[in-house]
Design goal:
By secondary structure, this protein is an alpha/beta fold. The protein has two domains: about 60 residues; about 200 residues, 3-Layer(aba) Sandwich (Rossmann fold), CATH 3.40.50. Strands 5-4-3-6-7-9-8 form a seven-stranded mixed β-sheet, with helices on both faces. A two-stranded antiparallel ribbon has the order 1-2. The longest helix is centred in the middle third of the chain and has 17 residues.
Length: about 290
């Protein structure tokens, strides 16, 4: 009997555990291996797969069985209105970070008329910067996407290439936090947004995260706040007076991060809860009367 994509889907689902989640993952893997989605995939279910598609599916199932996250196996993942290329050089885009983009867009719409200058520090895959570029107007927008890791910037560059006409508003720069930015942007940023590393060195993580995602994008010193300290310290001089800082934070870090931002001279410090009610984003403003 000739093997069909339907049979391969059933076999892949069983290999991955046989539960509903495994069936979904197996379907995604089969679609990636076949190059078909939607109606085309449905119509091809009982068709004979090409041997190269079968070999690719077998390789992806083996990677998933070894514990590699599904997003890396697929090589891409949806983030808001984007389909981002991702691999082990960058963090997997997560729903919490999608909400950080919402917070950033709301801050810009409420407080900062164009022209605006935005910096996404520690951009990784480019998820935040490229989403802002896609969802903000095409004119009067300048977005800097920075990372200290040149490998991560290579991923962001690949994603930028697929953005379309909005890519004209995005500039990539390599360096450690604010040091990556051109000196003439000091004191001129309307918004600094970041999803920094915020995991303490002794904190337990799920094996799929600990063993596969880049540690430099996860861990930030003994208490997980080293990157937050750097961002708060730089915000006082790199933001323009009245400019805002928006950061993703750990679910239990709200009080500590609020204290750091307040001690750093920022005002209107507030926390934003995610969809599950956990405090996952901080917003703060450089005082209008601040002097460098």
């Amino acid at each position: 009997m000739t093997t069909s994509w339907r049979q391969l889907w059933i076999e892949a689902s069983a290999a991955l555990g046989g539960d509903p989640e495994a069936a979904n993952e197996a379907r995604w893997l089969c679609q990636e291996a076949s190059g078909l989605t939607g109606e085309e995939w449905a119509l091809a279910l009982d068709g004979a797969p090409h041997p190269r598609g079968v070999a690719r599916l077998d390789a992806m199932v083996a990677r998933r069985q070894a514990g590699e996250p599904l997003q890396y196996v697929l090589g891409s993942w949806a983030f808001r209105h984007l389909d981002l290329f991702v691999d082990r050089r960058v963090l997997i885009p997560r729903p919490e970070t999608e909400q950080v983009v919402d917070v950033a867009l709301d801050v810009l719409a409420t407080h900062h008329p164009r022209p605006i200058v935005v910096a996404d520090l520690g951009t990784g895959s480019g998820a935040i910067a490229l989403s802002l570029a896609r969802e903000l107007p095409l004119t009067g927008v300048e977005i800097w996407a920075t990372d200290i890791d040149p490998d991560a910037l290579d991923v962001a560059r690949a994603n930028l290439a697929g953005l379309g006409r909005e890519a004209v508003n995005v500039r990539l720069a390599e360096g450690d936090w604010f040091e990556a930015l051109p000196p003439e942007r000091r004191g001129r940023l309307d918004l600094v947004v970041a999803n920094p590393p915020y995991v303490g060195m002794d904190e337990e993580l799920q094996p799929a995260v600990r063993d596969w995602e880049p540690h430099g994008a996860l861990f930030a010193g003994p208490d997980g706040l080293d990157a937050v300290r750097a961002l708060v310290a730089g915000a006082g001089t790199w933001l323009r007076p009245g400019g805002h800082l928006v950061m993703e934070i750990g679910a239990t870090q709200g009080p500590a991060v609020t204290a750091l931002a307040t001690a750093g001279g920022l005002q209107d410090v507030s926390l934003v809860a995610d969809l599950s009610g956990r405090q996952r984003a901080l917003t703060a403003r450089r005082p209008v009367a601040s002097v460098c």
